[in-house]
Sequence to fold (154 residues):
Amino acid sequence: MAERDEYDDDFDSESDSSPLVKDLRKQLRQAKKELDSLTDQVKESQKSSRERNVRDVLNAKGVRPSIAKYIPDSVNSEEEILSWLDSNAEDFGIELSGEVGAPDPGVADRQRADALTSRAVTPSKIADFESRMAKAESDEEIVAIINEARQYIL
Fold:
């Protein structure tokens, strides 16, 4: 026997037993099943997305992944997770590493120093340019040497 809804009793008169009404009820039951299925899929997707967010934030902060099971389900976004971690870090005996995605200031300094040293003009480079200029036989060679030397001029 087919499932009956609470409203089916209201429509059990003989005048409603037409094929059209039966077909509409069948379509309604099918639509409800599809809605339930889609709702379950959305919930599962949200759950996996939250788990991935929590795992990524914990990894970025250098926190053990096992802490994830203590983070409440109401904490979803990255900001909420970070806030929860900041307020509960002491309770778990963890120290949080720097900002998520924040660059190490030492890295930027080293990159600037490397850029300056690679552009620095050493005496051997000057001597090389002078000797190449002296040996240049065409205007094109001279222009190429000058263009190469310009990259070292600050």
About this structure: DSSP finds five helices and no strands in the chain. The mean pLDDT is 79. Residues 61 and 99 are 7 Å apart (CA to CA). The chain has two domains: 9-92, 105-150.
